[in-house]
């Protein structure tokens, strides 16, 4: 009986710790995992690339803001990413074509129905 109580207490404390940390993050597809890794390596110097992250460069929108643009879909995001850094005098960067799908697959995981942009 004592072992059963100890096991129950352990389970409850684990559940409380998980809930206290917030909701579980959705499991990312392999493509979205590659997109996140690319974003952390190549985009995070300017953009906030994870949920609730502020952009280091105030002129660069956070990925969460982009992902929650009304009407945005995975397909429209892919099109946008093909030509997203089209200001060569300000940026010397292009998303490699082989990474566009991965990055779009990651960014749409940041969409939330209750999203409200920071003011």
From TrEMBL:
Residues 30-111 form the Cytochrome c domain. GO terms for molecular function: electron transfer activity; heme binding; metal ion binding. Residues 1-20 form the signal peptide. It comes from the Bacteria. SUPFAM superfamilies: Cytochrome c. InterPro entries: Cyt_c-like_dom, Cyt_c-like_dom_sf. The keyword Metal-binding applies. Keywords: Heme, Iron, Metal-binding, Signal. This is Cytochrome c domain-containing protein.
